[in-house]
Amino acid sequence: MKILVCITHVPDTTAKISFTDDNTKFNSDGVQYIIGPYDDYALARAVELKEASGGTVTVLNVGTSETEPTIRKALAIGADDAIRIDAEPTDSYFVAEQIANHAKDAGYDLIMMGRESIDFNGGMVHGMVGELLGLPAISPVMKLDIEGQTAKLAREIEGGKEYLELDLPFIAGCQEPIAEWKIPNMRGIMSARSKKLEVLAPSDASEAVKLQQYELPPAKGDVKMIDADNVGELVKLLKNEAKVI
Amino acid sequence: MDFGLNENQEMIAQMVRDFGAKEITPHRDQWDEEQHFPIDVMKKLGGLGLMGVLVPQEYGGSGFGYEEYVTAILELAKVDPSIGLSMAAHNSLCTGHILQFANDEQKKRWLPKLATAEWIGAWGLTEPNTGSDAGNMKTTAVQDGDYWVINGAKNWITHGKSGDVAVVIVRTGETGDSHGMTAFVVERGTEGFKGGRKENKLGMRLSETAEMIFEDCRVHKDNMLGNVGEGFIQSMKVLDGGRISIAALSLGIAEGAYEAALAYSKERHQFNQPISSFQGIAFKLADMATELEGAKLLTFQAADLKNKGKSVNKESAMAKYYASEVAVKNSVEAVQIFGGYGYTKDYPVEKYYRDSKLCTIGEGTSEIQKLVISRAILKE
Ligand SMILES: Cc1cc2nc3c(=O)[nH]c(=O)nc-3n(C[C@H](O)[C@H](O)[C@H](O)COP(=O)(O)OP(=O)(O)OC[C@H]3O[C@@H](n4cnc5c(N)ncnc54)[C@H](O)[C@@H]3O)c2cc1C
């Protein structure tokens, strides 16, 4: 089985967020980058599927050269080779087009990625890739097993779960508990350096959305402590100051 | 010259942090309290390739160099210094001695088990009456046909009870003769070899420190490392490398304590301002940060020389001496910056404070490092 896992290169979940250039650029100074946590689940499950029934796992990232350490980490975790499409990932549609252009003739049996990135959290790329390739796209997939050419999966829906069966190939947007994150080992780290990381030029694609400006949420105000016996005061403050009741 | 971490080191650091957060941190305080040595954690470290970092892949190891090794210990020590100590002792001392001085057959026999942590290793040089003066050891081995019969005791041995295999250095010649000692590998289960008392320690409480007792313990001559009379010289060379790992351990403590103190100093307010705004605290942080960087440079210098196969006798002693003193100092200052909270087990600096002191003692005290350094520079 030939699996493609698309990964994002995103700020660590604990990174301090700030902007430069009149709030038009993300300030990456001192920011640690990681594989998108949802993509990391997809990757972990892909590696498990490969280990169980053979095949290959290719990771793909649309990004500039600074994403390579993140791609190497995916190789250390167990992907066999990697592709970096050398372009700034400007918006979901642009990224989806790059992925679809690469994947359309590459013969993947399964394309996996996170349910969403954790920088812009659009959650749209899997759906768009499915549309562009004319394949089903399902998200968020929490359980995925493959038997022959058939996939059995569980998807989270409002208030419950849905169990589905469909034929390969398709696109899966993944989330926990599809697998446990894998910690690479020393051998993986050593072998990551010698695995193939191919850099491809981006295909022509339009930038559908232009980013105007970022805005941080307002800073949190001070906390007011109110004595547990003083419920009247609490109600007064909620009504007059916080204006929530 | 490149002073940054390479890509491997970045990945290793991340891997150790992820592993520590999942497997160690949630249990750390309880294990510290109970002085529990978590063997299963050591086995999992083996699964990650951290128990044979320097062992070539042909012997089942990871085949990395000293830079990556230092990074792994440093990061592990930030999570828990005592697991860092156990990892360092296993890699540098027991495994390191075999790696450096065993013949190929012996390497094939023991290294794959050690590098994967199927077996935990111990290394016995110190005795109750001979620590710094290890060359005066009293434990003896006497030849009897194809066997050597060992009698005596080693103490302060990391993994002395739980280790599956130990390298021991014992007297085979005259007292006072540096060629009067020989190294043997003794496997657990060998008749006459047993673990003794486990020490109840101030810090490093997750790392087992115990006695090893030898009573007419017969060890086959195939278990001898190198030749008769080479054991003490070998162990001094093992310690030259081992000291880099104690320097790395010290860096982890120094960095962990510093980072905790830095963060706390910005959050804690007194007199309506963060305590970091007081020069008395800010200057402490400046000293901690500067000395930490200095210790790092010394340690990575020694690691670099070791990788290049050069002598590191003086440089590893300098790194170990300086980094260990910085670890103690930074953790003392971190407790001071945390004030009363630093004196409790609710914050990590209390543990760094207790754990740090081992670094100026184990694998040669600070005084002994100064002896090594001064001898080297006076000879130059
Ligand atoms: C947690 C822990 C783990 C250990 N693990 C191991 C292990 O795995 N294997 C092993 O073999 N050993 C191990 N050791 C032993 C350790 O290496 C010794 O404790 C250390 O070498 C010091 O020896 P000592 O304790 O006998 O102190 P001593 O040698 O008695 O020293 C006492 C004091 O005298 C000073 N002193 C001694 N000689 C001189 C001198 N010539 N000039 C100036 N000052 C001097 C020392 O610096 C020290 O301050 C471990 C120790 C600890 C605490």
Automatic annotation (TrEMBL), chain A:
<protein>
    <recommendedName>
        <fullName>Electron transfer flavoprotein subunit beta</fullName>
    </recommendedName>
</protein>
<dbReference type="GO" id="GO:0009055">
    <property type="term" value="F:electron transfer activity"/>
</dbReference>
<keyword id="KW-0249">Electron transport</keyword>
<dbReference type="Pfam" id="PF01012">
    <property type="entry name" value="ETF"/>
</dbReference>
<dbReference type="InterPro" id="IPR012255">
    <property type="entry name" value="ETF_b"/>
</dbReference>
<feature type="domain" description="Electron transfer flavoprotein alpha/beta-subunit N-terminal">
    <location>
        <begin position="23"/>
        <end position="209"/>
    </location>
</feature>
<keyword id="KW-0813">Transport</keyword>
<dbReference type="InterPro" id="IPR014730">
    <property type="entry name" value="ETF_a/b_N"/>
</dbReference>
<dbReference type="InterPro" id="IPR033948">
    <property type="entry name" value="ETF_beta_N"/>
</dbReference>
<dbReference type="GO" id="GO:0005829">
    <property type="term" value="C:cytosol"/>
</dbReference>
<comment type="similarity">
    <text>Belongs to the ETF beta-subunit/FixA family.</text>
</comment>
<dbReference type="InterPro" id="IPR014729">
    <property type="entry name" value="Rossmann-like_a/b/a_fold"/>
</dbReference>
UniProtKB/TrEMBL annotation, chain B:
<dbReference type="Pfam" id="PF02771">
    <property type="entry name" value="Acyl-CoA_dh_N"/>
</dbReference>
<dbReference type="InterPro" id="IPR013786">
    <property type="entry name" value="AcylCoA_DH/ox_N"/>
</dbReference>
<feature type="domain" description="Acyl-CoA oxidase/dehydrogenase middle">
    <location>
        <begin position="123"/>
        <end position="217"/>
    </location>
</feature>
<feature type="domain" description="Acyl-CoA dehydrogenase/oxidase N-terminal">
    <location>
        <begin position="6"/>
        <end position="118"/>
    </location>
</feature>
<dbReference type="InterPro" id="IPR009100">
    <property type="entry name" value="AcylCoA_DH/oxidase_NM_dom_sf"/>
</dbReference>
<keyword id="KW-0560">Oxidoreductase</keyword>
<dbReference type="InterPro" id="IPR009075">
    <property type="entry name" value="AcylCo_DH/oxidase_C"/>
</dbReference>
<feature type="domain" description="Acyl-CoA dehydrogenase/oxidase C-terminal">
    <location>
        <begin position="229"/>
        <end position="378"/>
    </location>
</feature>
<dbReference type="InterPro" id="IPR036250">
    <property type="entry name" value="AcylCo_DH-like_C"/>
</dbReference>
<keyword id="KW-0285">Flavoprotein</keyword>
<dbReference type="InterPro" id="IPR006089">
    <property type="entry name" value="Acyl-CoA_DH_CS"/>
</dbReference>
<dbReference type="GO" id="GO:0003995">
    <property type="term" value="F:acyl-CoA dehydrogenase activity"/>
</dbReference>
<dbReference type="InterPro" id="IPR006091">
    <property type="entry name" value="Acyl-CoA_Oxase/DH_mid-dom"/>
</dbReference>
<protein>
    <recommendedName>
        <fullName>Cyclohex-1-ene-1-carbonyl-CoA dehydrogenase</fullName>
        <ecNumber>1.3.8.10</ecNumber>
    </recommendedName>
</protein>
<dbReference type="Pfam" id="PF02770">
    <property type="entry name" value="Acyl-CoA_dh_M"/>
</dbReference>
<comment type="similarity">
    <text>Belongs to the acyl-CoA dehydrogenase family.</text>
</comment>
<dbReference type="GO" id="GO:0050660">
    <property type="term" value="F:flavin adenine dinucleotide binding"/>
</dbReference>
<keyword id="KW-0274">FAD</keyword>
<dbReference type="InterPro" id="IPR037069">
    <property type="entry name" value="AcylCoA_DH/ox_N_sf"/>
</dbReference>
<dbReference type="InterPro" id="IPR046373">
    <property type="entry name" value="Acyl-CoA_Oxase/DH_mid-dom_sf"/>
</dbReference>
<dbReference type="Pfam" id="PF00441">
    <property type="entry name" value="Acyl-CoA_dh_1"/>
</dbReference>
